[in-house]
Amino acid sequence: MSDKDYKNLPVMVEKPIPVDYDLGNLAVFDPNMVDGNEFDSSNAEREENIKKLTRDNVQLLINQILSLPIRTTTDSVDGSSDQSATVTLLQLPECTTVLPREKPLPKPKAPTKWEKFAAKKGIQPKAKSGKTVYDEASGEWVPKWGYKGKNKQLDDQWLVEMDDKKKGTEEEFVDPRSLSRSERKNLIRKNERQQKKNLKNGQVSK
Fold first, then answer.
1. pLDDT of 92-121, one tens digit each?
2. What is the pTM of this model?
3. DSSP track, 90-101
4. Where mainly located (predicted)?
5. CA angle (174 as vertex; 168, 178 as ends), nearest 5
6. Which residues are registered as beta bridge partners of 85?
7. Nearest Cα residue to 155 out of 187, 188, 182
């Protein structure tokens, strides 16, 4: 059957036994019996029979998808505001078929030295306070660390107040901005060393 013949096939497909759908996974399950001879490797029309069966079930799936609520929106193309394209969105329902994991479950990490000590002493971990903090100067929520983090705020200040405790000491003429960057780098190196130490302790404990 040619591509033109496939295009002329009817959109409505009838099955003796209704098929089951899992639209969340874009899947259709056909419980209808098939003739084994039609799909036997010795049958010259085997590939054509597979295409026909697949086409009918895919058509049923598409019919169900198009029956879902459709929302049309207009979004910019390539980030340009002077061009626009109509985008059609379909909200798929929740999946009903449980699929196996692609990869095995990750192995539990060995507890660090601190975690072992905390468990022994019954110390509870501190509640996480989030990754952002409110910046009163800009009126926005910014990251605490990393790119444009709050901990780098000192780097962008053109005027920095000198700490009275550093007057008359060797650090009096040290730029606090460069000192802040140096302290961050030292802290990063310290954390890296601690991570390597924890990994080593975890391997030894096994």
1. 999 999 888 888 888 888 888 888 999 999
2. 0.46
3. E------SPPPP
4. nucleus
5. 155
6. 75
7. 182
